[in-house]
Amino acid sequence: MRKLEVGMIAVLMMLSGCGGASTVKTGEKSKTHWKVGMSQCNLGEPWRVQMNSDIRTAAAAFPDMEVIFKDAQNDTLKQRSHIEEFVSAKVDLLLVSPNEAQPLTEPVAKAHAAGIPVIVLDRALMGEQFTTFIGADNRKIGQAAGQWIVSKTGGKGDVVELKGLMTSIPAQDRDAGFREAIRGAGLTIVFEADMKWLEAQARKEMESALARFPKIDVVYAHNDPGAHGAYLASKAAGREKQMLFVSIDALPQEGQSYVRDGIVNATFLYPTGGKEAIYTARQILQGQSVPRKITLQSRVFTKENVDRGGDPIELK
Amino acid sequence: MTAILKKPAFLASAEARAVLALFLVFLLGLIFNGDGAFLQAGTHRDALRQASVTGILACGMTVVILAGGIDLAAGSILAFSAISFSIFAIWWAWLPFLAIVAAIGCGLACGVVSGSLTSGLRIQPFIATLAMMVFARGLAKSISGGVKVSTSLPNADGTYHSIQLPAIFRQIDSRFAGDNISVVTLIFLMCAALCWVLLSRHRFGQYVYAVGGNEEAARLSGVPVGMTKIAAYAISGAMAAIAGICQAAQEQQGDPEAGSGYELTAIAMVVIGGTSLTGGRGGVGLTLLGTVIIGYLEKILSINAVPEANRLMLTGVIIVLAVLTQRRGGRGA
Fold it and tell me: Fewer Cβ in 10 A, N or C end of chain B?
C-alpha cells in the first residue's frame, strides 16, 4: 500500500512539474541497476530486428543494465504512448528509433524535460530536446556504392537501379547519393523501379529490365533482399555472370551471406548503432559527457574481405 | 440509350466478357510493348509465374466467395505456411514431401478455424477472417522469431554460417518444356483444376453454389451449410499454404512479412474474372482469366518502368474498366 502511495505522489509531483522527476533520478543514480527503455518503431524489417539484437547483445555484457523493448509496429501514435509509458515507468535512460520526426519530437522532448537522458537512433528528430543522436548517413553510403561501381566498371556501362520505397527518406538518400557519385562518369541508369524494399517485387522488376535490355552491367539495389531478388531473376535468364550486383545494409544473415555465396559482389554496411547506443548510454549514466551527434562509419564487404569483417570505407 | 449500351450476343456469357477484357489488356501490351519486351516469350512466362502465387490464393478465394464469404486471412496464412515450410525443410531438414504436406496442413488448419468462427460462432466472415489475418501474421512472426527463415544460421558469437538450400526450393522455382513454363505456373494450373473439379464435378460444388446463392433455402433443402462453409475456408487455407510454399521457394527463404496485401489482389482477380462478390455466381475458370488479366497488367506497367504513383492510379482505373467490361449487358447491368 505504502509503495502505491509513494508512486502516486511521485506521479503527481511529475505532473505538477515541481521538479520531482529530477529528485527521483538522483535517487536512482545511487543504485547499481540501470533500467533502459528501447522504443523501436517497427520490427517488421530485418535491419531493425538486428538493431534490437545488437542492443540486447551489447547490454548482456553489463549485468547492472536491463533493457526493456517495445515495438510500435510502424504506428507513430503507438510509439508515442510507448515513450510516455517509459517516462511513467521512470526508466533511467531512453533509447528511441522514431517512426517519424514531427509527431514524435514533442513526446521525446517531454521525456527529456522530465530528466531522462534520450539517445535517438537512426532517424532524426527535430529541435534539440534529446541528449545525442546516433546514426549513419544514407546519402554518403549511396555515394560510396556509386564510387565503388565507377571504380569497378571504369565508369562505363548500363545500370539497373532497384529503389527502396521512394516515399521513405533512406531510399531517397540512397538514390541521391548514388546519382551524385556516378554523375560525370559514363554510367547510364537504363531502368529504375521502386521495389519497396521487397525481394519478390525486386525480382519482378528485374525480369522486366532483363526483357527490355539485352545488356545490363550493374544492378544497384537499395537493400540486400533487392539484390538477391535481382540475382535470382538474372540467374533464371542465364545472365547473372554478365553483371555486378551491389547492395546496401550488409546484414550478417543477408548481404554478408550473399557476398560469401558469390551472389552479391559488394554490399555496404548501414550500421544499426545498437552496440554504440549501449556504450554511449553507459557513458551518460556514469555522468560523462557525450557528443551531440555520433555518425556511424560504413564498411564495404566483398568476397575478398567478408571473412575478416569487411573494410572501412573513406566517405568523401 | 440502353439499346446502345446493350452488349452483342457473343458477350452474353461471363467467360466471353472476361476473354474480351484479357484481349484489351493484351492490346495495351502490344501498344506499350517496352521496346519489344512484350513480344518476347520470356516476358509471358515471367508474367504468368509472377501472377501464379496470387492466382493460387484467388482459386481458394473463389470457393469462399462462391459460398457467400470472403477470406481476408489468405495473405497471412501464406506467410505462416511459408515460414512453416521453411522451418520444416531448412531448419529441421525434413523430407520435402513431409514438409510440403505439413505446411499445407498448417494452412488448412487456419482455414478450418476461420470457417468454424463464421459457421459455428456466427461471426461475420469479414470479421472472422480479419481476426485470422492478424492472428496468422502474429503466428508467422512468433515461430520465426521475427526474422526470415533462410539458409543463413546464427552462431553463438553473433556471426552467421550458411547451410545448403534444400533441393525442393530450386525444383519448385525451376522451369520445364524447353524453359518455357515455370513449375509455379503449373502448380497454379493444378490448383485451379482441383478447384474446378470440386466445384463443377462434385456434390460439394453444388452445396457451395447453393449456400452462396441462398443460405436459408439451402438449409431447408438439406444442404449441410455449416460443413460446406468450413470446407470452403479450409480449401482457401490449403491454397494459401500452397501459395506460401511457392513464395518461399522463389525467395529461397520464409519471410514473416510475405504476402501482405495479396488477399486484396486475389479478391480483385476473382471479381475481374466475373465471379459475384455476393456469392453463388461465377467459377474458377473465370478466376483463371482474372488472374491472367491482373498478371499481364502488372507486367505491362513494369516493362514500361511506369513510376509507382502512376502505376497505382492506372491500376485503379483499369480495374474499374475491367469490371465494367465484365458487367452483364442490357437489363442485367
Answer: N
Q: What is the 3-state secondary structure (H, E, C) of A247-288?
A: EEECCHHHHHHHHHCCCCCEEEECCCCHHHHHHHHHHHHCCC
**pLDDT (tens digit, 0 to 9) for every residue of chain B, 333 residues total?**
444 455 566 677 888 888 988 998 999 999 998 888 898 888 899 899 999 999 999 999 999 999 999 999 999 999 999 999 999 999 999 999 999 999 999 999 999 999 999 999 999 999 999 999 999 999 999 999 888 898 888 887 767 888 889 999 999 999 888 888 999 999 999 999 999 999 999 999 999 999 999 999 999 999 999 999 999 999 999 999 999 999 999 989 999 989 989 999 999 999 999 999 999 999 999 999 999 999 999 999 988 888 888 888 988 898 888 788 777 643 333
- What is the phi-psi region of residue A168: left when phi exceeds 0, alpha when psi lies from -120 to 50, beta otherwise? beta
DSSP annotation of A1:
-
Which three cell numbers, joined as nine digits, stand for A67?
Answer: 533493457
A75 touches chain B (CB under 8 A): no
Q: Strands of chain B (E only): list them.
A: 152-154, 160-162, 175-176, 181-182
Torsion (CA) B91, B95, B99, B101 in degrees, nearest 10 = -170
Of B152, B299, B303, the CB nearest to A257: B152
Determine the Cα–Cα distance for residues B134 and B72; give it in Å rounded to an integer: 10
Q: What's the predicted TM-score (pTM) here? A: 0.81
Q: Any chain A CB within 8 A of the CB of B252?
A: yes
Pick from B222, B320, B272: which is nearest to B65 by CA? B272
CB pairs under 8 A between A and B: 83
Instruction: For chain B, say whether A268 makes contact (Cβ under 8 Å).
Output: no
